[in-house]
Amino acid sequence: MAYTGWAVALGAIIASSAAASTQSTDAGGAPAGGPDTRYCMRVEPQTGSRIEGVECWTREEWAEGGVDVDHDWAKEGVKVLNG
User: Fold this and answer.
1) pTM of the predicted model, to two decimals?
2) In the structure, what pLDDT confidence band is assigned to residue 46 with cuts at 50, 70 and 90?
3) N or C end of the chain: smaller count of CB under 10 Å?
4) Do residues 78 and 40 lie in contact, with contact meaning Cβ atoms separated by under 8 Å?
């Protein structure tokens, strides 16, 4: 009988951690900001490195590099810095 309580508690912990680890698939894009707002996103590591980097640029700077912030934000976005 005591094992039943443990099984229920363990099941609740597993269910809550699985729900917390799922990412939102909101297709709304990046958060709104002004012209000086910098969007920090993960970038591929440089050749010879396995360490993934994070770059923080404005929407305009990302666009110059061929990146659509609204499209890539859900997958690569890290944080927003208001300038």
Assistant:
1) 0.60
2) confident
3) N
4) yes
Do 83 and 33 meet the contact criterion of CB atoms below 8 Å apart? no
* Secondary structure letter of residue 28 according to DSSP: T
Percent of the chain with pLDDT over 90: 47
* Residue of 76, 29, 38 whose CA lies nearest to 57: 38
Residue 54 pLDDT class (50, 70, 90 cuts): very high
In this structure, what DSSP letter does residue 21 have? H
First to last CA, the chain: 59
Q: Kindly tell me the burial class for residue 73, based on how many C-beta atoms sit within 10 Å of its own C-beta (0-12, 13-18, 19 or more).
A: buried
